[in-house]
Specification:
Number of helices: 11
Strand order of the largest sheet: 6-7-8-3-9-10-14-13
Shape: globular
Distance between the termini: 28 Å
Strand content: 15-25%
Length: about 325
């Protein structure tokens, strides 16, 4: 049974980027909470604001061009967005771990795996070098690195893509974080390695009891992992529900379209996969109407005039849609 206590509560995050082409409204008032021990899946197309939202929480975006215009992110009794960088450094990699999408660019190519693993433990936990090294070897073994004791002094280029991603997971878990944010950590990996990484995350979540935010564009992945799913489009959350409720009763036309793109084998023949017509919205204009309206087959006049709020329905379901108000 999941805890009903929120470990993270995010309110009205707005993030913009200043570019030569003008302002990009990347995140437009995102609110959500994360319960203790819960896995929240955040899904949507590329450019929907998934990664920018989560990187905003820890101020991991380059500022400028990024600017966090408004919002609150309450964690452990403090607002992350009001912290200065020195305070946030104590949170990053300590209480909140982050697994980035590309391990080759996230790992420092000129530092050994040992150094990159023990540095956060010495910084956040005050461990001495020998204890940190011992713990680092345990972590590498925990994520399935063979001969960890011999490989700890290797550099990132000595590891395959899948093994580098395991190293990234080990680094993110080094200080026993309360929250783990995983930003599409299996996207660049082949299916077999992806399945292994997912099993590692499931096992470690069960063993360590941490809460996880899993960012992905793959609804098939979160179906077998998440407790709750938030669907993003055009810098907004358009639907949020417990995983079974979302898959069995999707209410937003965008979510319905995403689910129809998933393979669904019935008998010996496969149904033809559908696609969502049109292109994602331009984010150079602040949305004043439903961002999905130009691609939606159920668009009404109100959809073109007013942006619907994310409202609660029955069965812990939330949806932002004028067409499906109930």
């Amino acid at each position: 049974m999941l805890s009903q206590t929120s470990i993270l509560k995010v309110e009205n995050i707005v993030t913009r980027f200043r570019t030569q082409e003008g302002q990009v409204h990347a995140v437009n008032g995102i609110s959500f909470d994360l319960k203790k021990g819960e896995l929240l899946g955040v899904v949507g197309e590329s450019g929907s604001g998934k990664s920018v939202t989560m990187m905003s929480l820890l101020k991991l975006l380059p500022m400028p061009p990024a600017e966090i215009v408004s919002g609150e992110a309450n964690f452990d009794g403090h607002d992350l967005l009001k912290m200065d960088l020195e305070e946030l450094r104590k949170i990053r990699g300590g209480k909140i771990g982050f697994i980035f999408q590309d391990p080759m660019t996230s790992l420092n190519p000129v530092l050994t795996i040992e150094y990159q693993l023990i540095e956060p433990m010495r910084e956040h936990l005050g461990m001495n070098r020998s204890d940190a090294r011992r713990r680092a070897i345990e972590l590498l073994e925990m994520v399935g690195i063979p001969e960890a004791k011999n490989r700890i002094n290797d550099f990132p280029h000595h590891f395959s893509g899948g093994m580098r991603q395991r190293v990234m997971i080990a680094i993110a878990l080094a200080c026993n974080p309360q929250i783990l944010i995983a930003d599409e950590p299996t996207t660049a990996l082949d299916v077999t390695i992806q399945a292994q990484i997912l099993e590692i995350i499931k096992r470690l979540r069960k063993e360590l009891g941490m809460a996880i935010i899993w960012i992905t564009h793959d609804l098939g992945v979160v179906a077998g992992m998440a407790d709750r799913v938030a669907v993003m489009y055009g810098g907004n959350i358009v639907e949020e529900a417990p995983v079974f409720e979302l898959y069995s009763n999707p209410k937003h036309p965008y979510t319905q379209g995403l689910l129809k793109t998933l393979p669904n084998m019935k008998g010996k023949r496969a149904e033809r996969l559908e696609s969502i017509n049109g292109q994602p919205p331009s984010l150079h204009q602040k949305p004043v109407s439903c961002s999905f309206a130009p691609r939606c087959s159920k668009t009404m006049e109100r959809c073109r005039q007013e942006n619907p709020a994310l409202l609660s329905r029955e069965n812990n379901h939330k949806v932002a849609c004028w067409w499906n108000p109930n």
